[in-house]
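Obj.: predict assembly geometry.
Materials: sequence records (below).
Method: joint structure prediction, all chains together.
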Amino acid sequence: MELGITILVTVLQIAAVLGVVLTHVAYLTYAERKILSDMQDRLGPMEVGPHGLLQPLADGLKLFFKEDIIPAGANKIIFSAAPILVLVPALIGFAVVPFGRDSLQIGAIEITPYITDINIGLLYILAFSSLGAYGILLGGWASNSKYSLLGGLRSAAQVISYELPLGLALVGPILLSESLSLTDMTVAQGGGIWRWFIVSQPVAFVIYMICAIAETNRLPFDLPEAESELVAGFFTEYSGMRFSFFFLAEYANMILVSCIAVVAFLGGWQAPLPALEFIPPIVWFLAKVYFLLFFYIWLRATVPRLRFDQLMAFGWKVMLPIALVNVLLTSIVKYFLNQWAEK
Amino acid sequence: MIGNSPPINYIPIFIFIAVSLAFGIGTLVLSYFVQVRVNDPEKLSTYECGSEPISDARNPFPARYYIIAMLFVIFDVEVAFLYPWAVVFNKIGLFGLIEMIIFIALFLVAYVYAWKKGGLEWD
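Observations (raw structure tokens):
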């Protein structure tokens, strides 16, 4: 009975988180189109609903009723499995993200602001997010199209290259909070904006943001789907629901890396000043995530695309050494600060 | 900080994986029943900017990609090793710090070797 209720609560939590994430994905595409069009001095989607507000719904429905084409010569099983292999890792990362501070108490049932809190939270997210590269690679290969193959290869190379500095950048916040749990990490940054890890780890934050943009294949690092040379990259041959899964995964990943950035560097749900703590934690969390997402779109409207050799050289020869030195310096400074504090 | 999450905390993750899988497969199956399908050999051919596809797409590709993948595997294992170290940093003191400096020095030796050998070049 007890266990049944716990599982029921968990399933409801998962359904709620999935619903919220999918809604955010839908409206992130809308926000992207609207913000981009504003920056380019045009209106963007206006036809469906007031100010085009129902546009994401119309797009989703249209894709749902479209034919899923499997091209001749494609490997049917891998071709069908690849979108799911990309989608699942993008969604399940949200299991460990703490969205707020307080649990909701209904009778004897406690509803936590996260689905689960495990002491290897960050490692879990990194491990699963790198699984997405398999989906991209397999989808690109299985399509039997030259554009898809090149896009898939490029994408896999890019994702794994930027995974290294990304992982190293996160060592900084782990050193400071002494935990891999996202909840502990947020709690360690309580007390004001000067306690956030972006203040003590500014280099790591910049590295993390650059690598996160590269990991999610966004501009200026969107070479895997560079329209002008590779048509649509690894999903050139995909259509209908399978295409929309790739799209969904890309935007869900954007939201996920923003959530991790907020937890690891921007204090999670913590208010910037103790005087502002009357505003609910979840509002702070969402505000920070929205700011980072806006930054993503802003970047897309501003910067041009890199060349592939520049991209790889930048990842391996610039980001990796800086991230490594940052880890070294952080640990040495922290050691001597600890010594000093003991005296 | 360590050992404060009992194995039961991992169950929601398995439920989440199952729910996401069900969502993915379920949507695909539902969509399969409502979509209109017209078969046409022209439509099923792969896209090559409108011209007839030339040969199979699964051609050999540059060995660069293999080298990058191998370098990634080696370095990523070392990065993964830094995580538990960072968590227990305060408990292991000077010994841990010196050990890690040696470890990162070894990492750098491998890195410089890969760079000098041209493993990081793309052209």
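Conclusions so far: The first helix of chain B runs from residue 11 to 34.
To do: check interface contacts against the pulldown list.
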